[in-house]
């Protein structure tokens, strides 16, 4: 049974609880138990065609030639779609909020950058005929050296994965090749610490493995629009991404989604809608593009891998006085959302602890691996795994109980966090106390009496003197414009088939945040502001 | 390609279709009969969301050739409701929050029905065994196991 701890944050709640503590039926439950919930694939449309893609067999290769002569003659083939058929064949998901450069084609043109990258799409009368035609496409590759390790990718002379970022690292605000966090003097504090513990942590990519695979059905409507049934977790994200890639206004599309057969972050990348819609545009028929299980598991984007080096300085009494972290987030071959993951990684590297000297470098690295995407807490999860392993080791090093060690170092209301935000509504101490109580884990009285609302702030609220690093700060060039601005696309590798249509009246620009417009602020305006 | 005529019973109703050789039962049900309750999850017998009953026995429709069910009786989730009322298993799944995204639910319910039809009061281990071929990525299985046990013992709201 649910236990409510009403004593915590009591003064911030009106306690007018009507629903918490009693069962309420989900609105979609009746559909689920009767099998009448409509998933994207439960729509059977008259004359529906089936789209399948040819995927790269190479992790990194130049495409010399794509031979489709045999595939064109294959039974049931309606249309072969190449990269040159995609109106804007270069995109990055977060360009919708002006973050990052377009770096990923819908269909590879000159080169493939990961095994499984889509090269060509075939639309056929049946799934079987689409598969048969796919098997007849011959791609002539010139294999290139590949790089699969984040640290190798950053070494001089490493193969360039993604030419948009020639140093294999995402560039923030057109200037910075990594995220850095500087708070106090970590080197000096490490030099005077009683103990220093340096460790290496690593987390592999993780596949979401939803029971329903990614997919979409796009159908021409009679009013010139397209109805799109999709598995997406991010409907409006997908609408705008498709509008950009297909170079049409977003009201060309009527997207229908909402019933998702498991997503967990693996259905936010707009993987299938653009090609399904393009197929429908080019054939005038409904087109279905759904991942098979192998595609989902092998080539669907995973949670990105991370490698983290932590060097902590701790005093004999258990206080952590310095933390120095170098972390690498494996973005795979393209950016997608990993640039954002690295920002979160940097913000979370002190963990829920007050450490007076923090130094962090976090790189978003390109490798010839499957592009990574969202998954619960991406960017934070591996960092927290590393930090909490480290906390246990530090407690052991100074001979302290791990629960008490966490309470001692926990942040408290009023403390200054390393990224220069005041800690508010902290509750780590209370969480540890409850966990200890539930686990019947004895902690000493002074730790049982500790509170997040006591002993914070004061000198702990100060921003310590932080050594400045002498390095030229190049002026940031203007941000890349999104498709909303209808500026010419400069980075496409292939000339567009036809000149772009004359600019339609652009919508008013989004309101500028009043705070300094760095990435984190923009993100909070998209994904919701933090609880104050 | 020549079509194969095929007749079978679908949720108590006789149906007749023409299938291509090699068509699996999942595709036949979804695309030719129009019963969208069995789902495609893997097409290789790994996930169980396409599970149906053939003559009362649990089968993976994605690995069953359609032509092999001629003259047999197929049950899917579409036939589980009893008139306008939910089957006790459906009621129990709803009451116990045994579905989240809902995509494995059709297969889970068919696996549960196959179990209760032959063993009306299974043990917890027997329930776990019965749904061991069905993958759920959301619930963590506990609510599903509890729902099936509740349906078996009649502890289901009307």
Task: Summarize the entry for a quick read.
The complex is a heterodimer of chains A (532) and B (158). Chain A has 532 residues and is α+β, with helices and mostly antiparallel strands.
Layout of helices and strands:
The complex is a heterodimer of chains A (532) and B (158).
Chain A: H1 29-34, E1 49-55, E2 61-67, H2 69-72, E3 77-81, E4 111-112, E5 118-124, H3 127-134, E6 138-143, H4 150-153, E7 179-183, H5 186-192, E8 195-203, E9 215-220, E10 226-230, H6 235-246, E11 253-256, H7 273-283, E12 287-290, H8 293-298, E13 306-314, E14 320-332, H9 338-348, E15 358-366, H10 381-398, H11 402-409, H12 428-438, H13 445-448, H14 519-527
Parallel strand pairs in A: 1-12, 10-11, 14-15
Antiparallel strand pairs in A: 1-5, 2-4, 2-6, 3-5, 7-15, 8-13, 9-10, 9-12, 13-14
Chain B: E1 3-10, E2 13-20, H1 25-33, E3 51-54, E4 57-60, E5 73-75, H2 88-95, H3 105-118, H4 124-130, H5 142-152
Parallel strand pairs in B: 1-5
Antiparallel strand pairs in B: 1-2, 3-4, 3-5
Helix pairs in contact in B: 2-5
pLDDT < 50 runs, ≥5 residues of chain A: 479-497, 499-503, 509-532
Radius of gyration of chain A: 26 Å
- CATH structural architecture of the largest domain in chain B: Roll
What proportion of the residues of chain B form beta strands (DSSP E)? 15-25%
Question: What do the pLDDT scores of chain A average to?
Answer: 89
Percent in strands of chain A = 15-25%
Structural class of chain B: alpha+beta
Q: Which residues of chain B sit in consecutive blocks of at least 5 with pLDDT less than 50?
A: none
**How many helices of chain B?**
5
Total beta-strand segments of chain B: 5
- The CATH architecture of the largest domain in chain A would be 2-Layer Sandwich
State the end-to-end CA separation of chain B. Answer: 51 Å
User: What is the level 1 CATH name of the largest domain in chain B?
Assistant: Alpha Beta
Q: Kindly state the mean pLDDT of chain B as a whole number?
A: 96
CATH fold node name of the largest domain in chain A: Aldehyde Oxidoreductase, domain 4
